[in-house]
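Continuing the series of single-chain predictions for the mutant panel. This is the parent chain; the variants come on the following pages.
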Amino acid sequence: MNIRCFLYTFLAIFLFVSCQQQDVYFDNITYFDITEVKTDTIKGQPIHFDDIYTGNMFVYDSLITFTSHKYPDYLLSVFRITDGKHLMNGISKGNGKDEFMGINLMPQIIIDSDRSPKYWLYAYTENKIIQISYEQLSKNPQNIIDTVIPINPPKGYNLPFYYLFRLDSTRMLVKTYPEIRQEKGRQLIQPSYQIIQPENGEIIRQINLYKPSLQKVVGKEPEPTFFYLSNDQIKPDTKKVANVMAFLHQINILDLESGTVQSIRAKGTPKTSDVLQKSFKDSRLYYKSMCVDNNYIYTLLVNKPIDLTNSQLPSSKEILIFDWSGNPFKRLILAQEIDQIRLDLANHLLYGKNETTDEVYLFPLGS
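Parent structure:
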């Protein structure tokens, strides 16, 4: 082979590899080989409770909270983990005084100057934050609400928020929902992160996770909004946010100080453009749940096709752990199928829950 043929061959291979790696929808993508990640197998220990429970769970120290709209006239139920004892039901459901139509549990432990751990429930219909105190939960389970914080959304935004995280006493980080607007034809407004002042709705800073190219119209319709489904959690030191995508084998790490986004994607998985062409029923579910501490991001990796004959999204037996620099750290292969993972930051314990059976398991993390 002469030098010219060699150069042409090399250039063709280089361009082919580059095209395989390029993605016009995200900057700064790092690819990893999941088969090269260290793998451990662990078995969960069942946790039993002495009363009915269901829904989204949150764990801290000796208490586990379940929130659900399925409860008859309340929205929250609290148990003690050590013996499974039911402690209380709370947050009255309804549209009367001191009642709420529904709540979403925000996965963040807040520790103020008083050193008393707290967490937030987002009453999305009333646009209020219900702050729950763990000290009150322990001492007086019948009066668990520490305070109720009204939120004034930014001007022009009329939907509930996807996520809310507390940054300090005057600022919070919110994530908006994707929105279809009709003012100038059918237009997709992408979700974004905004640092706001809740008392007046002032936007201090907006950070875009997705590139503007995602807003371009494919044919006559915008990209499907289900593409933006994700799980998001803020690092306990509030410096970064992890975003794990449901329908793309990718996690994104947002640095709140610099505003930069780092994307980490598995090799050999579909490109963004391929995913955007699919309907929900033809899609594949990748990440379903997550939890974080200051060292690692724990993701529940499903990697299964959507099955519309099943009322539940697919479950998983695999947890993929990353550090906050985006490096894959470890794969945990579980003995039980689960749909939800939560980390007890007080004791560094990992819990999993199966949505079909409502069974809860404690998984040993080791050192």
